[in-house]
Amino acid sequence: MATVAQKLSAAGTSHALELRGVDRMFGALAALSDINLEVRPGEKRAVLGSNGAGKTTLFNCVTGDFLPTSGRIRFFGEDITRLPAHERIRRGLRRTYQISLLFKGLTVLDNIYLACRGVSRGRFSFVRPRRNEALMQSAEELVDAVHLTDIRDRPVAELSYGQQRQLEVAMALAGAPRFILFDEPAAGLSPTERGELIEILQSLPSHVGFIIIEHDMDVALRVVESVTVMHNGRIFKEGTPEEIENDAQVQELYLGDGHG
Fold first, then answer.
1. Is there a contact between 206 and 237 (Cβ–Cβ < 8 Å)?
2. Is 70 exceeded by the pLDDT of residue 35?
3. Does residue 158 lie within any of the structural domains?
4. Known SMART domains for this protein (predicted)?
């Protein structure tokens, strides 16, 4: 059976995500300027930068929350620059947000089931799900994958902030995604919760690539193989975690003295 990389090669592309000359203007403000980025299938990458560097704007353009002013975005070889967000989701793109977007009155399992249902062909059906239904089984598996089995039947409103972030990861994994964008998943977590998050991200399937925006360097650099640093809406540096961590210009710009 052909691998994802082999199929992409046959189709004339080797990238899961490709941005060419992407700009995003807000009036006279250039939030993104000439972004050129390539991410391989299965690659795990961090996008770092200070507040206002353009990281979340980059995510918003990729996911279709709003469109780039100019430039092109390709997802596994297909031009998705002008596609609406729901069409990008159908193609296997997922995303989490800085602010939790969960159904607080429902249980952990119910939230994950709805995420699985939402990307399935039968998402508009009103038939009550059975325990042996394939989508319910998928939801049960995702509960286990993000270490929430013990609280699967608890209302989300009763969960800690860290547990809610774990739940968001599970919901992003619904429906066999091909690529995920994580927007500051470690923000506000305790040291123990950050360790749990690292373990979950490191255990994701090897074929599922992701980009993570993260201010916590101890999290970001432990779960990725490549790093892009942004500054003033532009790509400033790219390299391995080790190269970026030891780069004097990056330390001066972003990491601060004494890091590492």
1. no
2. yes
3. yes
4. AAA (SM00382)
For residue 172, being part of any structural domain is answered with yes
Retrieve residue 176's tokens: 């066999």
Residue 148, in any domain of the structure: yes
Domain ranges, residue 139: 101-176
Q: Is 210 exposed, middle or buried, given 0-12, 13-18 or 19+ CB atoms closer than 10 A?
A: buried
pLDDT digits (tens, 9 = 90+) for 166-196: 999 999 999 889 999 999 999 889 999 999 9
* Integer angstrom CA distances of residue 74 from 71, 105, 109, 119, 183: 10, 37, 33, 21, 20
Cα(13)–Cα(7) distance, rounded to whole angstroms?
A: 9
d(CA 234, CA 218): 24
Total structural domains within the chain? 1
